[in-house]
Write a structure and sequence with these properties.
Order of helices and strands: HEHHEHEHEHEHHHHHHHHH
CATH superfamily of the largest domain: P-loop containing nucleotide triphosphate hydrolases
CATH architecture of the largest domain: 3-Layer(aba) Sandwich
Strand order of the largest sheet: 2-3-4-1-5
Radius of gyration: 25 Å
Number of helices: 15
Structural class: alpha/beta
Number of strands: 5
Strand content: 5-15%
Bound molecules: zinc ion
Largest sheet: 5 strands, parallel
CATH class of the largest domain: Alpha Beta
Number of domains: 2
Shape: elongated
């Protein structure tokens, strides 16, 4: 059974949630805030199970719940009647009807078989203002047994009145070492590890997703080929590479991140940095070649240009032209 002990990192949040469970002083509303992949859902279910577990604290160990009482078994099978996960009608937003029918009108009904009733609202930042106002009424006067957990990717999108009535727990970015250790334990070859860790920026879920993604591997392969071969490219080659880089909107930023990390490594090597501390340790030959080919000034200008490209792409300029200019400059 997944419990607190299965969650990597987030020690502070877990400590405060455990404290709420074992002191029997849970708040009526929580906001778990952090980007997708940070483990908000896992944490919410672990907390819900721990709150509803029937075993005395001494028998629960590190997971927060015993794993074998009636409540834990129901929770494990996803059929606990007192753990309610909101499922909105539409995918893109949570409307007032969703909140009314699944939360507001439901809270008055006493827990089915526990001392508490837990509501989990994923993607709470997608609530419409009307939905938030409907929820607010419940948050203002909740029945004693309710605990509402809002999972949010950006708490600033929530009404201040909601924020003021909930305990907000921001998910913390994990250290690169923690993510790297986890990936190694999962059996990911070290070769791709460094790039995945750098791209994940402290988000374990994202790291796992990237490490399993064939698309990401292909993307890395393509951009690697461009960056190492750019000096021999013809104009036609550059056009083709730019078109390819611009093709998938959601991958453009990843490509720029790769280039940025790559040229930082080149700069680091050129400045006499230790090879063991490179991000792309396995590419040291190519990096050394680049360090020999480019001047300090040129590398700095390329790095600057990559940053400019990133802000240009955010303002929706022609992506193909942006990549073309960048690749020309690298050539
Ligand atoms: Zn239990």
């Amino acid at each position: 059974m997944m419990g607190f002990r299965d969650i990597i990192g987030q020690e502070q949040i877990i400590a405060s949630l455990k404290n709420a469970v074992f002191s029997a002083k849970a708040a009526h509303a929580y906001i778990f805030d952090g980007e997708k992949g940070m483990g908000k859902r896992t944490l919410a279910y672990a907390f819900a199970r721990a709150l509803l577990c029937e075993a005395p604290p001494g028998e629960r160990m590190d997971s927060g719940a015993c794993g074998c009482c009636h409540s834990c078994i129901m929770a494990e099978s996803g059929s606990h009647p007192d753990i309610i996960t909101l499922v909105p009608e539409k995918e893109s937003s949570i409307g007032v009807d969703d909140i009314r029918s699944q939360v507001v009108n439901d809270v008055a009904i006493k827990p089915y078989c526990s001392e508490r009733k837990i509501y989990i609202i994923p993607d709470a930042n997608l609530m419409t203002e009307a939905a938030e106002n409907a929820l607010l009424k419940t948050l203002e006067e909740p029945p004693a047994y309710t605990v509402i957990i809002l999972l949010s990717e950006n708490k600033d999108r929530l009404l201040p009145t909601i924020l003021s009535r909930a305990v907000c727990l921001p998910m913390r970015a994990l250290s690169n070492e923690a993510i790297s250790d986890y990936l190694v334990k999962k059996g990911l070859p070290e070769k791709d590890n460094a790039a995945v860790v750098s791209f994940a920026r402290g988000n374990l879920g994202k790291a796992v997703m990237l490490s399993e993604s064939e698309e990401f591997k292909e993307l890395l392969g393509n951009i690697r080929r461009t960056v190492t071969g750019v000096r021999d490219m013809t104009d036609t080659d550059i056009n083709a590479a730019a078109a390819e880089a611009a093709e998938k909107k959601e991958e453009r930023d990843n490509i720029l991140s790769f280039l940025l990390l790559w040229f930082r490594d080149v700069l680091f090597l050129k400045a006499g940095g230790d090879e063991d501390r490179l991000i792309f340790r396995d590419e040291v030959r190519e990096l050394n070649k680049a360090a020999g080919n480019y001047s300090f000034e040129k590398i700095n200008r390329i790095i600057q240009e990559i940053k400019t490209a990133r802000s240009r792409l955010k303002s929706n300029v022609n992506a193909e032209n942006t990549f073309e200019m960048l690749f020309m400059m690298m050539r």
